[in-house]
Design goal:
cytoplasm, Rossmann fold, 5 strands, 203 residues, globular, 5-stranded parallel sheet
Amino acid sequence: MNTPWILGLTGGIGSGKSAVAAHFSELGVHLVDADHAARWVVEPGRPALAKIAEHFGSGVLQADGQLDRAALRQRIFADAEERRWLESLLHPLIGQEISQYLARAESPYAILVSPLLIESGQYRMTQRVLLVDAPEAAQLQRTMQRDNVPEAQVQAILKVQASREERLKHADDVLLNDRDLHWLQSEVERLHNFYLTLRGGQP
């Protein structure tokens, strides 16, 4: 049995990468979501949460002992130093979680879905990168509608995420999501059939 090769799937906020990931999953591809891994590593009882509370104080915990993401986000968005501290704690742990979940894959290739695939260096765990790209105006529109947040907040998130140029540099395949869902799904199917022909992610 060949070990599955790993495809990294990324895209900016509101680019449609969740819709793309969902369709790959429907086609039977094993998916690991870095956002889920990031949530698992800070569950109560896990060492990372204790270290975060020790560093930032109990103000970043909710009454039930869960991480208060909004409070933590405010602390790190305002302070690049604190953000780096948090990233250096979490990235290796998230990497371990991801590796364990990818190792369970039984499909010919597996997908690591990560909005910060490039920024976090997680692309190094993959053999190929698929970028879901969308015009910035569409990203803003979709995110504001989906999360019901003001434009300024979306703009702030876009600034922290890697620039499109940076992502395009790392991408082996680019799926421009500027049409309807039906078209998007047919593109996913086309890519899936192509990926099934690859060994180790390379033609």
